[in-house]
Amino acid sequence: MTDKSPQFEITPQHTEVRLRLWPAILIVVVHLSVSLWTLFMGATNKQSMIGFIAAPVLALLLLIIWWLAASRAPWRSRLVGLLLVVAALLWTAGTQRANAPFLLLAVLPVLTTVVVTAMALTFRLRWSVRKWVLAGVVVACALGSSALRAEGLTSSLAPVLAWRWTPTAEELLKSAPTAKSDGTATLPAQTGPGDWPAFRGPARDNRVTGVTFSTDWSTPPRELWRKRVGTGWSSYIAVGDYIFTQEQRDQQQLVTCSRADTGEDVWVNRAEAHFENDMGAGPRATPAYEQGRLYTLGATGALQCLDAATGKVVWARDIKADAQTGVPGWGFAGSPLVAGDRVIVFTHGADGRSLIGYDRMTGEPAWKAGRGGGGYSSPQLSVLAETPQLIMASEAGLQSFLPETGQLLWEQLAAKEMNPRCCQPLVADGNRVLLGSPAGIGARMFQIQKKDSAWTTELVWTSKKFRPYFDDMVFHKGHIYGYDGDRFCCVDASTGEIRWEGKRFGGQLLLIADMEMLLVVSEKGEVILIPATPAECKEVARFKALSGKTWNYPVLAHGRLIVRNAEEAACFALPAAQ
Fold first, then answer.
1. pLDDT value, residue 511
2. Which residue range is the domain that position 146 belongs to?
3. Are 347 and 390 found together in one domain?
């Protein structure tokens, strides 16, 4: 009698499992190659998104597909392994109070690389042992990641990490002395030589004249003072013996006045407001000083006119209400511009309300104008074709207005791009304006002309190799010095040709015109001197000024270099010229 019962193949327990490992190794190698290229060779945010975001996520998805469909691992091991990796990622995210996606972006390359490397190194082990080794590696990566916290992103979108047990900037600030709030500053009636009364300096162009100092920094510049400050990306301004800035502490946004020589607080203006997002907390805009008054804009839209001597409120407006708009994603970042009888702010409002000119003395709106579309630049007062005018770079493109009335003089529209426009328009040679672009259509130089009462704009050149985003530029003797993404570079202003590319400093810069020297404050808080020459990028001096991510603009006033970030501020005496 024939046995017709079903036959089952029984696999012996000692059958060796041979993983098909080469696809996993290829995925990891390609992923690491893309990320390392981005780290060392990339410049723009678009490239950073590919290297630091898209590549890790895509590598993980491809490895999951390989593991489930082509790894040759036993099916039970495939399912258990997938669940274990998912649990490790959820554990990593769950241990974070904030910024969990940023920590995951940092952990993913480590997790995938370590696990695939462990698979390769344990190929001689039996699967009954090997699977437990791999499980232990995943668990170890998860436990290791829980010892970290993500504090945000750099300008190149790389996660900023710290150990969980180290104090945060907010925790360190709580141990700092409470800021004074009842002093009085003795200020000049008018600003004078050496003062730095507004965003990016007297002419708002990051250019310093009448200043020289020694470039021999074998002994770093002498530190005059250092102190903890509240979070925020506002910069200092300096008038006479005093400096002013904005910061955030707990649920308050502060305007502070300090002595320039000691850093000691003189007065503090406090407002109940709080702003925080993925790129940091606190106010973004820099104050402006004019004839004893201080004009400030908080991240949530509070425009204030303060008595600069005492910090008392003279008048205040909510620009959200005036422009019928909300708080933009990265906060109100445009620094107020004082021009004659007007104080002008960018509001992110809709067409006809994106710029508001207020009466400087009363705070009443005098005019509203501008195309909508958003952006994070500040109003710029410049002279083009011998005509003083307000220039505004926004998502709509470039526009120019009469500061007193808001009358439109000319405009050059530009399509909205993936990343918002942040850097300032650059005026070159008195009749050309550069509109920066983080990616896409590239930076564009326009010729501005006036014949009789008619204005015209003409495109001079476009460069897709020069893509300024967060960081501003300076113009000197026919060349532009600034950033392609976060990589320092020199550009021929007449053609858009890149003359040289330097390191990925990030951060901001000043032009010391009389020395033909660029002073760069990098994103890592280093101060670097580089000659302003198209011949080459050559560092002549460097010292470490600050710890932590540094985006705030430096200030050079009365022989002092004043720098700050979202954690601390410091002041240095620059050595005398030899």
1. 97
2. 22-163
3. yes
